[in-house]
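In the current project phase, we have settled on a layout for protein records. One protein thus recorded is set out beneath this paragraph:
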Amino acid sequence: MKKNPFSLNFRCEPGKVEQLEENIQRIIAPNASPMTFTGTNTYLVGNEKLAVIDPGPKDLLHLHSILSAVKPNQKITHILITHSHIDHSPLSKLLKEKTGAKIYAFGNSFSGKSPTMQRLTDQGDLGGGEGLDLDFEPDILIKDNENISNSEWSFEVIHTPGHLGNHVCFGLNKQNVLFSADHVMGWATSLVSPPDGDLTQFMRSLKKLSTKDRYNKFYPGHGDIISNPKEIIDYIIDHRKMRESQILNELKDLSLTATKLTKAIYTDVDQSLIPAAARNVFAHLIDLGERDLVTKPENLNFSSKFGKIL
């Protein structure tokens, strides 16, 4: 296992406008938590015609911070949503009302779900649903490899399902900068909770981003700028493979639920994080089941027991 490159040293002031590049600003929402780290990063891109990436949670103070950052010669023309979790998308509706800008996204909170997750959802009860913005509806649907542009900037849309089916990253063409949202962060790996999240998709999306090597700087949805994206991506892939090996090792002679497996494997984490970690383990078990490495329980649910196929 490679050395852990994650860092928890990032310090920030919610509501403060930070100039990251000549045409990129960051404002952090006041929603710090164990799952959101220091809060959601909202980005303003442009010099006169501004794109706002992930306005964040429905918070009037954060809305005021965003609007106050717009200078007299500037106008918000686009609202770009990476995915529709409640810490990223709800404020888009109020921001649209204030600015008239259209909301661009891959789809609603159920878009992009893999056929596997849809099939398993139809067969059983996978739970999940954590943090979904159920009211989210974009004005304009975007798709993989599409470009969103105006006279000042151009974004490449990269569909990266896994954390959520409608998750996308935005590559800022000509600047080698990628807005990686929650798929790649510098402080922790993302939650993947079925059926909204899909580990098979998540790993595939990581490999997809690893081919986009012209983007040498990532601006994530939470935490500080990532100046070593290849190292972070490689580590996340290795970390997930390590978890997979741990799961298979624990199931050598036993049949266990996701929660019992998590308690056996995650021995060094705060116990309050066990429920979230168990959803990640559940995602691994489903992926392993689809690859015929563990048993596939009938009427699959979060309490199902899994065993290793020898």
Summary: The chain has a mean pLDDT of 95. The longest strand covers residues 75-80. The helical segments are 60-68, 91-99, 115-123, 199-210, 229-250, 258-265, 274-290. Residues 120 and 185 are 29 Å apart (CA to CA).
